[in-house]
Structure formats: structure tokens, C-alpha cells
């Protein structure tokens, strides 16, 4: 591979890590074994045999991988459903020994049962003690990744850490106006109104935008303040598990109705960014740097970062986390959390002649050494051991390059690999405001369990495909309309419910529940 | 259509006593060079476009990439039923036709007008500079054009609302208003493409070298006759193709500009399919939709073509 | 004609109005380019915050420094030239004789051949079959595959055929008398006459090659063969940080916005340079319906 970066070359040349625990206890094969791999991810479109992390892994296990990636230049994105590289690879009819990719789950769960990938359950039970222990510990994960035929076809990337997004507010504005951090829905409303009317930035113009969001679904998120729900997972507009333990859709509930009615009022009153639907990803930079944005709901790590980057630009700038305000029924809910399991990871191709060695190799990444390698890179290079724990070196953390990008370059934190992330890795480069925010959220029990998705049989899939996309469109269309003042949610609610039924929501929920029952109980 | 090798219909018009085969041999002996010139293109079409067209059948199959086209099971019109089952599809179809018609009626003359206007400019430097500039937006990606449009129509800082405020008109959140979507979208695409398309017409107007015209004038053919013979057919051909592309509204731009609140007027067939397919990423469903588009397009083209053939003797085939 | 003065005054007003209208339209179409250029010279933060409207803010060359120091920028730029020049020549080699043949009234099955071409404008095989076909032909991951695989385009073929059809047969008669065959007639009579038309089709080929990225993305395995547009996409992916961590790049003097703007500027400059050369051929064409003469 010609894409070897300078830093990777230097690191490879001075690799020490291998010797640290090269006593052979992780060796899988007697004779060196080479397996072919397809690895595609937007940020590392193919497997790079020169990654220092991979070199150490092959020294330790005796297994090395050879890149055979097809469609690398299409770069499977993390966000949209396109998996062109995987499709092209499968179309060629030559499936490599290992297939690693983002957005792998639906792909293997469709083609695994058709015979393109090996089922992993037995292999894991017999040959992968670390993986088996992990699944025994967290059975919901094993359930969540299973295909409709009950088998697991891939080893997922498992993010660590609980908190993703949180509420952020301008503490300095609150101070300027002599207000307390809002604790309830009413107080939030009062604070936003004060932001709007009382000129907290002190420039004499009512230019403040009380609530804003980079992505407009973070506005819908606020229905949780009215005991509604906006989604059940880290994907927007997703299904959720209701109080009775059934799969349901949040946009059909009464809390949602009340929330939308409330948000429509707020929007009308100017408490919400008038351009929230079109301002897009630049809104946070713009509104914060112009000193006019008041409150948002966004990622801890990136949002807290503005306290540093805008310290010189905006005087007294303090944009810090606040606890989720209590709903009328007294619930404080942080609806978003890091999902414990991603659709990314790797699988074993059906023509692989060494399935046992391969599953052992997968298992290696769940050993202590493997996991450290996958999370922190190479010992002595990116990190050193301090009190028995990996600690990134000062030089590594402060050289100005984003830490995650640097790790990709040495072959660490590759989400097209099945591994268990260690939150410690992120903690070490998170800024103090983000950590303080997370500590604040740690003081209570605000998170709710995620809906981890279901795998459909072909028939169920057909029912779902036929009705769901249209229903979803209709829901979003009405949602936005109501907030923008086009119709009144309270008055329209019955008709809305009726239309959802006519469009087949009940059928969709039925197949969801059948699949859910099969998968999790 | 299928009788290319033995083109009987063409033959019957001639009174000729020699056997058909003999006449074909004679014809080929005389005209072999034309066929030799045609051969690379035909072979290319067969090899690169027609050979993989077996793939169209997945529109009627439950296509699995792993099994391949041949081994995937037939499911008849299932995908088409899914397509037509949705009221939103019908709405999208209506929107598509409406947007296309409006783009055609407003958008088709604009580049022609622009080309004619350029023709009237005598200042050569001005003309050349302007012509080079007007086609620039064609090279700038939709993402950026859409970004500019969103900014221009923004209620707080956009130039459009700023101008409206001079007349004491309250700011309008244009991009969430269904009634505004089509004018904005159609206007944007015309503006973006008019310069580039005018090149086609400038070329059509000046499509043939001056020597041709000069000789034609000598031959007694008037310039209008020449224009009738060369320029008008080109424009008609262009129009027929545009009619054929009726269902192909620039969907990338719509995706960037529309909102759920404007689906009502903005959703077109391609965006609808994009959202449907997004859920499952199915090639078979997309193929069904594509086939539907193609059949409609072909019917439209055939109609337009035969009308054109009757009245102007210009035709695609 | 009786009132020459009035006529020419109207004429002059018309000319001025015409120029003003064209001027306004031209300026409006120049704006996106100005915007992109300003973006490329602005600081990353200002660009991301959307503060750049007309002129650069916090002017910096960082974005250009970034791309010009990327090896892949130069490699992909070179590739784009290869695909554009090679592809255009290849297309013309197919299109000119093909269009000429299709324009001949004496060809057997003329309707059929034309239909064969038109059909491909609306019916296509789809991604996977096309990909597999290219693979079977051994044309994956090669310059030649990209160049030949998209050589013929129905629209261009029909456009050119139409121009050829418009040429009166009297033109070739003299050449025929001299015993010229079809190849000679095409090269000596038709091609010189149809220079503007050929230039138009060449321009279309150049533009579509220059902007094309999708199939290059799908068919090329080796990163060293990708064109500039694919590199642009890769850069956007590499530089746009995940949602979660965006702020880490907030202080960088360049951002994904400024870097992609710089790449777009670099990709438009050759187009601006090349166009006048092609334009020359249009200008040689006669001015129809002109006020003068």
C-alpha cells in the first residue's frame, strides 16, 4: 500500500510493543497463516498490511491478513445505508476469508442465512473463550446481532461509555440575568423566554436564539420534557420499547403530541431558532461565535470544546452541561446514550478454510492484550503503562492532530474490526468541560435502555418495506408542519392516528413485535 | 425492429427482379464502408450496454447479490405493487410531472433566448467573457449551489428577505413553505443550467461552418431555409430528449433543498425511491422503479417522435 | 426600411438592454465561483460558521497549502487529465464515423440502428450487471477501462448525426465525382463543415469526463488511479470529523469547507482556460438572425 503515512512508517520501524508480551501464549497457529480480508470504512478504505498494530497482532497470533478489498474507493460511510463495496465484493462471487466493514449487520444478516457467511455461534462457544465470556455477560448483545435464523454472523464493534449527548446552556447568560439553571419544563420555558427578551448578551439587540440545534431532530428530542419520546436508539425517529415491553413508535404517543404542541408554541414565540430546519451543521459554530445561541442538546465532547476555542472570542463564554430538566410527571430523562453495539464489525466468508483459526483470531482482539492494541495503539509509541493502565503519551495527545485520526493511521480504533472499545481511550483526550458534564450526568439515573433493533425474516421484511418508509415520511411531514404552525397537533391528532392506521402502522408494529419476541425472549 | 438482417419493409418499395440476397450483396459491395464506420459503435453498444441488460429482470425478482441474477427467485410484479401501493408515490409522480412541465415550459426557451441574446452582442470581449462565465455554475456541485440558495432565502440574513424588508414585508421562511418550493427549485435549476445549455443552442445556431452557409447562399438557399434545415431539427431533437427525461428531475438538488414540511410539493419519483430504498438498499426495487421510469420515458419519446416526424420530418430514429 | 433612423435607434436601445440583461445574468452566475474562491481563502472557523458571503474572512492560504502538499492531489489531478483527454479522443473516434453512418439515407435498417442507440438513453442495466460485465471484460481497475467503457453516449451520437443530416448532399457531389469513398467524404467534406458541431460534442465529452466520479469510484481499485473528483470526495470524508468530536478541528486554520473549496477552484481553472479555445469554433459559425449584415 502506497498510502503509508510518515508517522506510520516511523512507528513501524521502531515497534517495541511486540516484545512486551511475546511469550507465545496468544499464538494461534504453529505455522504462519495468511488470511484474505476485505476491509472498507470511510476513513480507512482498505486493509493496510503496514499498520503497526496489525504487525504486532500477527507477531502475537501467527496470523497475518492480506488485503483483497473490492470497491475500496466507494468508501462505505458510517451514516447512510450504502454498502456498495460489500455489494460489489459479493457480486464478484469471491468472498474473502474475513469481511470487515461499517454497516455490516444488515448485510451479513441477509446473506449469512443464504450461505455467504459462516454462522459463528458454535465456533465462538468452542474456540473463543473471551468472546463467549463477553456474550454470556451481556446476552442482550448476542440477541441484538442475531439474524432472523437465530445465528450470529458477525463480531461487532462495541462502543464503550454511556453518555453521548447532553443539554448545554450558557451559564454566563443565566448569571447575567440572575437566573438559576432550569430544573423543570416550566423553568426551561421561563429561561428561554428570558434569553429571548432580556438581552443576556447585553448588546442591546434582541438577536438571541434561545434554543438551537445542529440537527433538527435534536429539537424533537425536547418532547421528552413533556414525557414524550423522539426515538428509541441512537438513530433518529427509531422505534422504542414502551412501558409494557412492546415495540412501539414514539410518534404515535400522547406525550409526543403534547410535546409537539408545546414546541409549536415555543417556535411561534421565537424561543426556538427560526431557521432550525435549514441552518444545518454550521449553526453551532455560527450561533456560539456570534454570541447569540443560548441552549442546545448535542455531543458532550464537541460541544464542550467551544469553551476553549471561543474563550478569547466571546467574553465570559461558559457553555456547559445542565441536567435533563424534569417533565410534568417529574421524570428527568436523557434520551440519547451511546449505543452499546454498532452495525459495524467483521464476519467470516463461507469459503474460509480456516474458520477455527479465524474465530480464534477474532477472539484475540477480546483478550486483554488485543483489546489494548485495538484501543490504544502500540505500547511505547502511542501509550505507556502507568500503574498497570495504558496512558497516552503527552506528545501523542498534544501534537495538534486529532487523536482518533492518529489512531486510525496506526490501525487502532478501527470500527471495521470487531472489538470492545475502552472508554478510557476517549476520556484521556476529552476536554475537562466534557468530563465535568459527564460527571454531572453520572450523579443521577437519567439514561434509558436502547432499543437494539430486530432482524426480520424475508416475509417480515416485505411487510416492513412496503409500509414503513411511507409512514415515516408522513410522520415527519406532519411533525414539521405542526411545529411551523401549519395545522394544530391537538386538533389534528385523531385524524393523524387514523391515517397512521390506514397506512399500515399496525402491521409494521406487529412484525416488529414478532421479531422482537423471537430475538430477545 | 428485429428484421435488421433482412430489411424487407425497405425492399418492398422497389420494383426489382433480382433476388433479395443478390441485392444485399450488391448493396454491401457498394456501401461496405458505411457499415464499417457503424460497426465500432454498434459493437460497443452491444458489448457495454446491451450485454449486461439481462440485469433488468431483477425488477421482477427477489434479487440476492449472492445468488446472482439467474438464481434469484421470480416474484412477478411485487416491486411494482409496492411502488404503486403508496399514495406518496402517486403524489411524487404528480409532482414530478408538474415540475418537469414547468421546467420545460419555462426552462427550455431560456437557454435558446440566451443564445439568441448572445448572438446580438457585438462587443466581442464582453461576449466571450460572459459566455465563459455563464456556464460556470454547471461545474459547481449541487451541494454548494444548494447552500447558496438556502442562505439567500434564509429568513434572518438572506438577501431575498432583506429586499422584502425594504417593502415592509415580514420575513418568509421560504424553504419550509410548500407553495414556494417549486418556484425556488425550478428557478435555481434554470439559472444553474441555462448558460451551459445555451452552448448547445449556440452550437446549433452556428453548428455548421460558414463555408456551408456561403455555398448554400450561392446555391440559392436562403439563410432561413438553412436554419430550418439545421437549427430547428437540432432544437426539436433536444426537445424530444427533454420530454423523454420528464421523470428525471435533478434529484440531488431536491434532496438538498426539501424538508418534510415541503414533501407535499417537492417530493418527486426519484427522491421517493431514494427514501424507500434507503431502508433496505435494494437493487431490485430500484430496478423496478427505473424500469417504470424508462418505459414511461420511452412512451413519451415515441409519441413526441412520431408527432415530430409527421410535422417536421425530424426524428430520433 | 423607409425610416432608417428610427430603426437604428430601436436597434441601439435593443443592443443596450440586451447587454445589460446579459450582464446581470452573468454576474449572478459568477457569484458561486466568487463564493467558492472566497471560501478557499478564508480561515477554517469562519468558513464553517458560514460567515463567508462575498470576500474571504481572515484570509489565509492554509487550505491550498494543505492540498498542494498532498501527493494524491497531484496524482488524481493528472489522472483527471488522462481520463478527460483519452476519453474525449476515444469518444470522438467512435462518435464521428458512427454518427456519419447513421446519417446516411442509404444504410439498411437505419431506423433500427438509430433505435438501438436511442434505447440506451433510457434503459440501463444497473450497477451490478454493468460492474460484472466490466470485470468479465478485464476492464476493472484500469485507465483503459474507464476510457473505453464510457466512450459512446446516445445523446452525443444523435446530436452529431443530426448535424451531418443537415448538410445538403450537393456538398459531397464534387468529392464523389472525384471518386472519393465514404471515409474520404467524411474526412474531407463533412468534418471540416461540422467543426462547430464536433467541438460541441467534444465539449460535452470533456465536461462529463471532468466532472464524472461515480464509475471511477466503483471500477477503480487502486487509489493511484482515481480522478480529482473522487479525491475531493475522499478529502471531504477524511476531514469532516465525526459529529461527536467536531470541535477538535475548530481551531485549525483550514477546515473541510475551505479545503474542498480550494480543490473545486483548482478543478475549475482548467475549464476556464480551455473553454475559449472551444468557443472559437462556435464563433466561426454564422450569426443567424443577427442585427447586422
From TrEMBL, chain A:
Assigned GO CC terms: periplasmic space
Xref: SUPFAM superfamilies: Periplasmic binding protein-like II
Pfam families to which the protein is assigned, alphabetical: SBP_bac_1 (PF01547)
Lineage: Bacteria, Pseudomonadati, Pseudomonadota, Alphaproteobacteria, Rhodobacterales
Protein name: Putative aldouronate transport system substrate-binding protein
Signal peptide interval: 1-22
Cellular compartment(s): Periplasm
UniProt family annotation: Belongs to the bacterial solute-binding protein 1 family.
Gene3D superfamilies attached to this UniProt entry: Periplasmic binding protein-like II
Main location: periplasm
Keywords, in A-Z order: Cell membrane, Lipoprotein, Membrane, Palmitate, Signal
InterPro entries for the chain: Bact_solute-bd_prot1, SBP
Automatic annotation (TrEMBL), chain B:
Membrane topology value: Multi-pass membrane protein
Protein name listed in UniProt: Putative aldouronate transport system permease protein
Record's subcellular location: Cell membrane
Entries under InterPro entries matching the protein: MetI-like (IPR000515), MetI-like_sf (IPR035906), UgpAE/MalFG_permease (IPR050809)
GO cellular component: plasma membrane
Keyword Transmembrane: yes
Main location: membrane
Alphabetical list of SUPFAM superfamilies matching this protein: MetI-like (SSF161098)
TrEMBL record, chain C:
InterPro entries tied to this protein: MetI-like, MetI-like_sf
Pfam family, one: BPD_transp_1
Gene Ontology biological process terms in this record: transmembrane transport
Domain of life (superkingdom): Bacteria
ABC transmembrane type-1 domain residues: 77-275
Cell compartment(s), UniProt: Cell membrane
Record-annotated membrane-spanning stretches: 12-34, 81-100, 112-131, 143-164, 185-210, 259-278
Matching SUPFAM superfamilies: MetI-like
Record's keyword annotation contains Membrane: yes
Keyword list, A-Z: Cell membrane, Membrane, Transmembrane, Transmembrane helix, Transport
Assigned GO CC terms: plasma membrane
Membrane-protein topology: Multi-pass membrane protein
Keyword 4Fe-4S recorded: no
Similarity comment: family membership: Belongs to the binding-protein-dependent transport system permease family.
Name this polypeptide is given: Putative aldouronate transport system permease protein
Amino acid at each position: 500500500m502506497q498510502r503509508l503515512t510518515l508517522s506510520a512508517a516511523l512507528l513501524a520501524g521502531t515497534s517495541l510493543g511486540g516484545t512486551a508480551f511475546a511469550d507465545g501464549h496468544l499464538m494461534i497457529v504453529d505455522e504462519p497463516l495468511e488470511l484474505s480480508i476485505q476491509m472498507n470504512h470511510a476513513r480507512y478504505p482498505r486493509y493496510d498490511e503496514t499498520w503497526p498494530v496489525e504487525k504486532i497482532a500477527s507477531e502475537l497470533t501467527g496470523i497475518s491478513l492480506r488485503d483483497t478489498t473490492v470497491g475500496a474507493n466507494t468508501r462505505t460511510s458510517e451514516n447512510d445505508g450504502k454498502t456498495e463495496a460489500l455489494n460489489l465484493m459479493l457480486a464478484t462471487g469471491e468472498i474473502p476469508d474475513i469481511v470487515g466493514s461499517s454497516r455490516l449487520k444488515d448485510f451479513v444478516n441477509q446473506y449469512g442465512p443464504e450461505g455467504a457467511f459462516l454462522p459463528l455461534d458454535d465456533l465462538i462457544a468452542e474456540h473463543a473463550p473471551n468472546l463467549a465470556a463477553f456474550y454470556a455477560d451481556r446476552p442482550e448483545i448476542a440477541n441484538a446481532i442475531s439474524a432472523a435464523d437465530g445465528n450470529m454472523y458477525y463480531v461487532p464493534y462495541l462502543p464503550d461509555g454511556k453518555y453521548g449527548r447532553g443539554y448545554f446552556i450558557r451559564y454566563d447568560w443565566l448569571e447575567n440575568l440572575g437566573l438559576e439553571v432550569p430544573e423543570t419544563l416550566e423553568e426551561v420555558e421561563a429561561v428561554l423566554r428570558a434569553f429571548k427578551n432580556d438581552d443576556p448578551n447585553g448588546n442591546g439587540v434582541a438577536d438571541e436564539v434561545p434554543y438551537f440545534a445542529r440537527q433538527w431532530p435534536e429539537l424533537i428530542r425536547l418532547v421528552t420534557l413533556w414525557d414524550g419520546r423522539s426515538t428509541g436508539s441512537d438513530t433518529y425517529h427509531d422505534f422504542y420499547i414502551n412501558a409494557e415491553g412492546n415495540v412501539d413508535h414514539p410518534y404515535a404517543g400522547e406525550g409526543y403530541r403534547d410535546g409537539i404542541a408545546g414546541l409549536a408554541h415555543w417556535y411561534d414565540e421565537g424561543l426556538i431558532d427560526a431557521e432550525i430546519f435549514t441552518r444545518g451543521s454550521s449553526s453551532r459554530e455560527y450561533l456560539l461565535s456570534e454570541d447569540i445561541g443560548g441552549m442546545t442538546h448535542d455531543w458532550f465532547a464537541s460541544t464542550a470544546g467551544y469553551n476553549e476555542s471561543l474563550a478569547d472570542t466571546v467574553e465570559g463564554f461558559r457553555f456547559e452541561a445542565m441536567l435533563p430538566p424534569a417533565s410534568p410527571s417529574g421524570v428527568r430523562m436523557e434520551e440519547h446514550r451511546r449505543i452499546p453495539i454498532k452495525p459495524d464489525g467483521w464476519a467470516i466468508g463461507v469459503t474460509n478454510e480456516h474458520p477455527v483459526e479465524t474465530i480464534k483470531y477474532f477472539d484475540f482482539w477480546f483478550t486483554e492484550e488485543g483489546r489494548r492494541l485495538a484501543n490504544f495503539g502500540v505500547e511505547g509509541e502511542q501509550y505507556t503503562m502507568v500503574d498497570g493502565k495504558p496512558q497516552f503519551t503527552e506528545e501523542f495527545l498534544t501534537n495538534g492532530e486529532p487523536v482518533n485520526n492518529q489512531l486510525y493511521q496506526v490501525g487502532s480504533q478501527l470500527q471495521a474490526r470487531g472489538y470492545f472499545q475502552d472508554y478510557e481511550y476517549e476520556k484521556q483526550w476529552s476536554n475537562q468541560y466534557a468530563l465535568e458534564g459527564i460527571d454531572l450526568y453520572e450523579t443521577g439515573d437519567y439514561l434509558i435502555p436502547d432499543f437494539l433493533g430486530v432482524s426480520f425474516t424475508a416475509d417480515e421484511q416485505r411487510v416492513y418495506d412496503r409500509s414503513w418508509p411511507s409512514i415515516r415520511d408522513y410522520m415527519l411531514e406532519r411533525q414539521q408542519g405542526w411545529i411551523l404552525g401549519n395545522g394544530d397537533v391537538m386538533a389534528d391528532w385523531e385524524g393523524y392516528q387514523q391515517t397512521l392506521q390506514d397506512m399500515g402502522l399496525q402491521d409494521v408494529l406487529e412484525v416488529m413485535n414478532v421479531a422482537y419476541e423471537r430475538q430477545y425472549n | 425492429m428485429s428484421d435488421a438482417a433482412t430489411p424487407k419493409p425497405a425492399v418492398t418499395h422497389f420494383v426489382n427482379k433480382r433476388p433479395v440476397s443478390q441485392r444485399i450483396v450488391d448493396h454491401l459491395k457498394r456501401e461496405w464502408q458505411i457499415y464499417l464506420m457503424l460497426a465500432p459503435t454498434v459493437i460497443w453498444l452491444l458489448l457495454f450496454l446491451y450485454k449486461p441488460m439481462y440485469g433488468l429482470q431483477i425488477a421482477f425478482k427477489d434479487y440476492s447479490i449472492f445468488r446472482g441474477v439467474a438464481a434469484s427467485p421470480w416474484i412477478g410484479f411485487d416491486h411494482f405493487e409496492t411502488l404503486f401501493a403508496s399514495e406518496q408515490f402517486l403524489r411524487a409522480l404528480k409532482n414530478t410531472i408538474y415540475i418537469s412541465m414547468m421546467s420545460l415550459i419555462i426552462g427550455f426557451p431560456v437557454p435558446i433566448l440566451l443564445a439568441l441574446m448572445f448572438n446580438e452582442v457585438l462587443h466581442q470581449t464582453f461576449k466571450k467573457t460572459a459566455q465563459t462565465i455563464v456556464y460556470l455554475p454547471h461545474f459547481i456541485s449541487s451541494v454548494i449551489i444548494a447552500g447558496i440558495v438556502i442562505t439567500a432565502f434564509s429568513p434572518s440574513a438572506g438577501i431575498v428577505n432583506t429586499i422584502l424588508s425594504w417593502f415592509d414585508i415580514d420575513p418568509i421562511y421560504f424553504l419550509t413553505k410548500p407553495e414556494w418550493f417549486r418556484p425556488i427549485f425550478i428557478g435555481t435549476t434554470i439559472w444553474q443550467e441555462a448558460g451551459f445549455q445555451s452552448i448547445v443552442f449556440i452550437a446549433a445556431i452556428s453548428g455548421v461552418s460558414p463555408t456551408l452557409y456561403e455555398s448554400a447562399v450561392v446555391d440559392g438557399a436562403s439563410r432561413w431555409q438553412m436554419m430550418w434545415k439545421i437549427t430547428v431539427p437540432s432544437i426539436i431533437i433536444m426537445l424530444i430528449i427533454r420530454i423523454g427525461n420528464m421523470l428525471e428531475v435533478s434529484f440531488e438538488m431536491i434532496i438538498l433543498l426539501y424538508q418534510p414540511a415541503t414533501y407535499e410539493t417537492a417530493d418527486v419519483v426519484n427522491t421517493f425511491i431514494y427514501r424507500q430504498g434507503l431502508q433496505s438498499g435494494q437493487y431490485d426495487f430500484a430496478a423496478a422503479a427505473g424500469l417504470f421510469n424508462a418505459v414511461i420515458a420511452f412512451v413519451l419519446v415515441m409519441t413526441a417522435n412520431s408527432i415530430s416526424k409527421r410535422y417536421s420530418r425530424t426524428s430520433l430514429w | 426600411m423607409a425610416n432608417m433612423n428610427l430603426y437604428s435607434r430601436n436597434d441601439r436601445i435593443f443592443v443596450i438592454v440586451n447587454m445589460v440583461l446579459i450582464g446581470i445574468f452573468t454576474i449572478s452566475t459568477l457569484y458561486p465561483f466568487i463564493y467558492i474562491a472566497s471560501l478557499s481563502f478564508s480561515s477554517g472557523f469562519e468558513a464553517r460558521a458560514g460567515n463567508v458571503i462575498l470576500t474571504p474572512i481572515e484570509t489565509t492560504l492554509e487550505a491550498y497549502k494543505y492540498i498542494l502538499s498532498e501527493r494524491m492531489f497531484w496524482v488524481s489531478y493528472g489522472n483527471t487529465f488522462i481520463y478527460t483527454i483519452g476519453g474525449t479522443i476515444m469518444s470522438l473516434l467512435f462518435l464521428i464515423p458512427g454518427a456519419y453512418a447513421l446519417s446516411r439515407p442509404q444504410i439498411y435498417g437505419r431506423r433500427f440502428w438509430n433505435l438501438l442507440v436511442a434505447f440506451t438513453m433510457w434503459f440501463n442495466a444497473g450497477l451490478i450487471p454493468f460492474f460484472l460485465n466490466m470485470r468479465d471484460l478485464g476492464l476493472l481497475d484500469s485507465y483503459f477501462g474507464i476510457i473505453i467503457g464510457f466512450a459512446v453516449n446516445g445523446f452525443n451520437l444523435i446530436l452529431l448525426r443530426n448535424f451531418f443530416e443537415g448538410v445538403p448532399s450537393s456538398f459531397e457531389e464534387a468529392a464523389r465525382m472525384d471518386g472519393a469513398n465514404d471515409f474520404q467524404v467524411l474526412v474531407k467534406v463533412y468534418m471540416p463543415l461540422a467543426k462547430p458541431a464536433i467541438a460541441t460534442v467534444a465539449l460535452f465529452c470533456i465536461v462529463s469526463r471532468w466532472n464524472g466520479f461515480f464509475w471511477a469510484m466503483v471500477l477503480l481499485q487502486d487509489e493511484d488511479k482515481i480522478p480529482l473528483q473522487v479525491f475531493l470526495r475522499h478529502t471531504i470524508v477524511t476531514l469532516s470529523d465525526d459529529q461527536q468530536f467536531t470541535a477538535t478541528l475548530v481551531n485549525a486554520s483550514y477546515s473541510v469547507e475551505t479545503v474542498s473549496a480550494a480543490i473545486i477552484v483548482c478543478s475549475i481553472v482548467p475549464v476556464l482556460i480551455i473553454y475559449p479555445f472551444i468557443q472559437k469554433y462556435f464563433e466561426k459559425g454564422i450569426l443567424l438572425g443577427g442585427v447586422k449584415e
